[in-house]
């Protein structure tokens, strides 16, 4: 049997088994006893609800994985990729057009297969626990907008990468340069062009909250390009806040659900955390690490993209470049996983640093703790994740660890 195929199938089985073990350990790690920090915040009924939410989500994820694994394996072994490639090559003699057809069909299949899971997650699971506010109209509109963006942005980018890899010396390096430039450009325009397609961004109205945020930012010598409230409530009751963009498109976004459920002091603490990421250089570091990871990926891609065995593993004769880009994704998975682990470790460190910055500069660690507690309860977060789950998947430290660190600052 093809060695590439053996490796890919073994890797898929390993990932499924690892996920099964991690999720089982995570479920077994829950406790019916409310942690001391959350006494008076969680009552017994709501804490039990959070654990049911975790178990239902875990069960749903395991069922989805158990369905997708054999479907993917069957698609590979029964010649699904070969069938798509035959259609693509029959469409045109131009390699780039063939690639767009190949990628478009794969995207359509992935969308159709994933649709039932998305429907169940939104309209059954999230609805069951009182989170869902998404209407059918919004759900469909989100899918169509996502597809439109994929066609208008993803298609040209994919075509550009194909052209570079097939036409230029040191193609992997130039492909990285082009993709990095595009990535920065998209980060710049996303807050004003892409994100508003999905949510309404309204400048935060004048009042106590806006004045408090502006006063804090001025004290930290941080220039605010915009403070916006977004209509997160049209999809979910869950709360969030985030920092996005840079330069003149730099924005701080607050979910309307967050504003409704938190005091002014708590919200300033949340925003101080986001500003802390910027002040501590986390955003620039994140961009640099992302670019370095992409450079590594393109270099390794250059070593395998012309290997006939990789294509043969998926039942394709020859080495059509566009197909190789998709096949390489299967091959690159273990490296991507290792980079993800390292990235999560760094991200958790950055979260502690941003928390510390917020606590020190607002001189109100208690308000930050209060905000974290409310967010956890409002989102029915798992308070006691298994350490292996945290190590493999968490980009943020568990909330109890964050609270413990904040209490040390306030002591």
TrEMBL record:
<keyword id="KW-0256">Endoplasmic reticulum</keyword>
<keyword id="KW-0472">Membrane</keyword>
<dbReference type="Pfam" id="PF01435">
    <property type="entry name" value="Peptidase_M48"/>
</dbReference>
<keyword id="KW-0812">Transmembrane</keyword>
<feature type="transmembrane region" description="Helical">
    <location>
        <begin position="6"/>
        <end position="25"/>
    </location>
</feature>
<feature type="binding site">
    <location>
        <position position="351"/>
    </location>
    <ligand>
        <name>Zn(2+)</name>
    </ligand>
</feature>
<dbReference type="InterPro" id="IPR001915">
    <property type="entry name" value="Peptidase_M48"/>
</dbReference>
<dbReference type="GO" id="GO:0046872">
    <property type="term" value="F:metal ion binding"/>
</dbReference>
<feature type="binding site">
    <location>
        <position position="277"/>
    </location>
    <ligand>
        <name>Zn(2+)</name>
    </ligand>
</feature>
<keyword id="KW-0482">Metalloprotease</keyword>
<dbReference type="GO" id="GO:0004222">
    <property type="term" value="F:metalloendopeptidase activity"/>
</dbReference>
<keyword id="KW-0479">Metal-binding</keyword>
<keyword id="KW-0862">Zinc</keyword>
<feature type="binding site">
    <location>
        <position position="273"/>
    </location>
    <ligand>
        <name>Zn(2+)</name>
    </ligand>
</feature>
<feature type="domain" description="CAAX prenyl protease 1 N-terminal">
    <location>
        <begin position="27"/>
        <end position="200"/>
    </location>
</feature>
<feature type="transmembrane region" description="Helical">
    <location>
        <begin position="287"/>
        <end position="306"/>
    </location>
</feature>
<keyword id="KW-0645">Protease</keyword>
<feature type="domain" description="Peptidase M48">
    <location>
        <begin position="203"/>
        <end position="408"/>
    </location>
</feature>
<keyword id="KW-0378">Hydrolase</keyword>
<comment type="similarity">
    <text>Belongs to the peptidase M48 family.</text>
</comment>
<feature type="transmembrane region" description="Helical">
    <location>
        <begin position="146"/>
        <end position="165"/>
    </location>
</feature>
<feature type="transmembrane region" description="Helical">
    <location>
        <begin position="321"/>
        <end position="342"/>
    </location>
</feature>
<dbReference type="Pfam" id="PF16491">
    <property type="entry name" value="Peptidase_M48_N"/>
</dbReference>
<feature type="transmembrane region" description="Helical">
    <location>
        <begin position="171"/>
        <end position="198"/>
    </location>
</feature>
<feature type="transmembrane region" description="Helical">
    <location>
        <begin position="65"/>
        <end position="84"/>
    </location>
</feature>
<protein>
    <submittedName>
        <fullName>Protease HtpX</fullName>
    </submittedName>
</protein>
<dbReference type="InterPro" id="IPR027057">
    <property type="entry name" value="CAXX_Prtase_1"/>
</dbReference>
<dbReference type="InterPro" id="IPR032456">
    <property type="entry name" value="Peptidase_M48_N"/>
</dbReference>
<dbReference type="GO" id="GO:0071586">
    <property type="term" value="P:CAAX-box protein processing"/>
</dbReference>
<feature type="active site" description="Proton donor">
    <location>
        <position position="355"/>
    </location>
</feature>
<keyword id="KW-1133">Transmembrane helix</keyword>
<feature type="active site">
    <location>
        <position position="274"/>
    </location>
</feature>
<feature type="transmembrane region" description="Helical">
    <location>
        <begin position="96"/>
        <end position="125"/>
    </location>
</feature>
């Amino acid at each position: 049997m093809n060695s590439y195929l053996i490796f890919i199938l073994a890797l898929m089985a390993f990932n499924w088994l690892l996920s099964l073990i991690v999720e089982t350990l995570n479920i077994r790690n829950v406790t019916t006893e409310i942690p001391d920090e959350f006494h008076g915040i969680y009552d017994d009924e709501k804490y039990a609800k959070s654990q049911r939410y975790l178990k239902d989500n875990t069960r749903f994820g395991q069922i989805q994985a158990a369905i997708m694994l054999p479907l993917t394996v069957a698609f590979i072994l029964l010649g699904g990729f070969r069938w798509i490639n035959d259609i693509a090559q029959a469409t045109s003699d131009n390699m780039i057009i063939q690639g767009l057809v190949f990628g478009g069909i794969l995207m359509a299949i992935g969308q159709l297969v994933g649709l039932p899971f998305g429907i169940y997650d939104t309209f059954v699971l999230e609805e069951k626990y009182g989170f869902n506010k998404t209407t059918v109209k919004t759900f469909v509109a989100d899918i169509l907008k996502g597809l439109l963006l994929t066609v208008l942005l993803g298609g040209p980018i994919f075509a550009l990468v194909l052209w570079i890899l097939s036409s230029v010396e040191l193609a992997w390096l130039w492909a990285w340069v082009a993709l990095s430039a595009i990535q920065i450009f998209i980060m710049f325009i996303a807050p004003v062009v892409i994100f508003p397609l999905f949510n309404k961004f309204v400048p935060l109205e004048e009042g106590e909250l806006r004045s408090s945020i502006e006063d804090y930012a001025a004290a930290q010598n941080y220039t605010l390009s915009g403070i916006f409230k977004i209509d997160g409530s049209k999809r979910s009751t869950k709360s969030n806040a985030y920092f996005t963009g840079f330069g003149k498109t730099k924005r701080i976004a607050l979910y309307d659900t967050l504003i409704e459920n938190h005091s002014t002091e708590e919200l300033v603490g949340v925003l101080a955390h986001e500003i802390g990421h910027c002040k501590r250089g986390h955003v620039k570091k994140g961009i640099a690490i992302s670019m370095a990871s992409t450079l590594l990926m393109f270099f390794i891609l250059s070593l395998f993209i012309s290997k006939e065995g990789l294509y043969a593993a998926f039942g394709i004769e020859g080495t059509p470049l566009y197909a190789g880009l998709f096949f390489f994704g299967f091959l690159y998975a273990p490296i991507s996983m290792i980079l993800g682990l390292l990235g999560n470790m760094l991200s958790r460190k950055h979260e502690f640093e941003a928390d510390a910055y917020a606590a020190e500069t607002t001189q109100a660690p208690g308000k930050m703790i209060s905000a974290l507690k409310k967010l956890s309860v409002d989102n029915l977060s798992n308070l006691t994740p298994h350490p292996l789950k945290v190590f493999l998947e968490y980009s943020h430290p568990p909330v109890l660890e964050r609270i413990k660190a904040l209490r040390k600052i306030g002591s």
